Amino acid sequence: MGRSGDALPTRALLDFQLAHARARDAVHGALDAPALAQAFAPLPTVLAQSQVGDRSIYLRRPDLGRRLDAPSRLKLEALAGAPDVVFVVADGLSAAAVQAQAAPLIAACLPGLQGLTIGPVAVATFARVALGDEIGALLGAKICAVLIGERPGLSVADSLGVYLTHDPRPNRRDSERNCISNIHRNGGLSIEQAAAKLVWLLREALRRGRTGVELKEESPHIALARPAIG
Description:
By secondary structure, the chain is an alpha/beta fold. The two termini are about 20 Å apart. It has helices spanning about 10-30, 35-40, 55-60, 70-80, 95-110, 130-140, 190-210; strands spanning about 45-50, 85-90, 120-125, 145-150, 160-165, 175-185.
C-alpha cells in the first residue's frame, strides 16, 4: 500500500475509508422488499419477515433471524403446495447485493428449470440462511434456494450468496446445504456463471434426493473472467 513517513499515503487511506464506509452501509442498509417483489413478475411472490423487529436487533440476535414471525407463517401456510423449487430472497448482510442481483439471477435460471414447478418467490427481511428451511417446509418445497446478501468486506460490499437445501425443514445443518458464493460484478461469479451452477445443482439435488456434503458440485467448468494486466 506504500507509505508516507510512518503513515499510509493519502490515497491509500482514503480508499480504505471509502471501502469501510461502503461495508458499513451494506450491513445497515434496508431492503426495499415491495419493489424487489415486483421485479420477479410474472412469478408470484410473498413477503415474509423473521422474528426480528429492526436492524440493530438483527445484527445482535442471529437466532431470531432464523425463525418466521407469526403473520408470515400464516401467509405461507395459505400458499402451501408441492413445488419442486422455492426461491427465498433474503436481505442478509448486504441488502444492496440482493436488490441488484437477485431478480436477474432467478430470471437467468428459469430457462434451465423448464419442466420443474416453481413456487412463489419469498422475499424475506431480517433473514438468515436458515429462515429458508422454515419457508420451504411451509410451502411444501422439495428444495429451497436461499439468495442472500453476503457479509461485506473491504473489497466487495455487494456480494450475493446462494444456499440450497433439499427437503427443507427447521434445524437442518449447514453440512446439508450447498453454497454458491462470491456472486458480484467486481471480479466474482457473473450472473450467467452463477445461474449455470445453480441450475446444475438444483437438478442434481432433485435427481439424487440430497444436498450438502453428499452432493459435489461437478457442473461443466466455466472459466472466470480474468482482469487484464496492463
